[in-house]
Amino acid sequence: MNGKIFLFAAVLLLGITSCHKPEADLAFRFSFSVGDEALRQDSVCYVNAAGNHFSVTEVQFFISKVTLVGTDGTQYALLTDEGIHYVDADIPSTLIWQLSDDHLPAGRYDRIDFVFGLAPEYNITHHFVNPPENSMSWPEALGGGYHHLKLNGFWLGSEQQLKPFNMHLGTGQSYDGEGGITGFIDNAFKVTIPLEDVVLEGNTTTRLKLNMDITQWFENPNLVNLDVIGGSIMQNQAAQEMLVENGKTVFSACLSD
């Protein structure tokens, strides 16, 4: 009898073990480009679709609610850091996101979904108490919470004078005829990035590069002319909406070394 029980337990354990998929680890690496060229900061060497000559001095942003979607449609919401990551082009440590709390089933994945910026449940004043994240705070009078994006630089204005621009995306406002704020608008938005030939191998770390193409903020589908919208848009909801629409094609993903 004891022998039969032992044999049954061994077979059961073997069945459970054979059905268990090996787990895979994942890391993201963030990069920046202007079209096909790697971003060079602090040099007025780029021309956008509207004809503005511009430079980029700073790029900072959040992503949140990051989810990987398998070929069978199964969604795996990332747990590391609440599924939130802050990226600063000038802070190398933010350009790598090692998903230490996430061990994903090995296999093929179709896409990445995330919220660009902070989803409403996280976009709350004082959610971050330490730098560098807390330096992204959005003025309380304009809705509070945090910037989703800071894209800063200079452009050569129509008078051939160098002017600063601060393309800051965050909580928008609606105004009455006298300039009083009547409500606030959530400008975070969903991004979907298709994945081609991305297979997470068991018992190893796969690295994915997420690249932001700066040109897309200026041209797809809306033409953004800095001579028209000016250098500051924090209280310009129409300009913010153009960025929300353009931002959906800013990112691409590929396997990284």
Radius of gyration: 22 Å
Silhouette? globular
Distance between the termini: 56 Å
Count the E strands. Answer: 16
Number of helices: 4
Order of helices and strands: HEEEEEEEEEEEEEEEHHHE
Major sheet size, sense and barrel closure: 8 strands, antiparallel
The domain count comes to 1
Keywords, please?
6-stranded mixed beta sheet, 42% strand, mainly beta, globular
Give a short overview.
With 257 residues, the chain is mainly β.
Question: Care to describe what's here?
Answer:
The chain has about 260 residues and is mainly β. It has one domain (about 20-255). It has helices at about 1-20, 215-220, 225-230, 235-245; strands at about 25-35, 35-40, 45, 55-70, 75, 85-90, 95-100, 105, 105-115, 150-155, 160-170, 170-175, 180-185, 190-200, 205-215, 250-255. Strands 3, 4, 5, 6, 9, 10, 11 and 14 form an eight-stranded antiparallel beta sheet that branches. Strands 1, 2, 7, 8, 15 and 16 form a six-stranded mixed beta sheet that branches. It has a two-stranded antiparallel ribbon with strand order 12-13. Strand 10 and strand 11 form a beta hairpin. The chain is globular and about 60 Å long. About 30% of the residues are buried.
Task: Write the topology of this structure.
Blueprint: H1 2-19, E1 23-34, E2 37-38, E3 46-47, E4 53-70, E5 75-77, E6 85-88, E7 96-98, E8 104-105, E9 107-116, E10 149-156, E11 162-169, E12 172-175, E13 181-185, E14 189-200, E15 205-213, H2 215-219, H3 226-229, H4 237-246, E16 251-255
Parallel strand pairs: 1-15
Antiparallel strand pairs: 1-2, 1-7, 1-8, 3-4, 4-5, 4-6, 4-9, 4-10, 9-14, 10-11, 12-13, 15-16
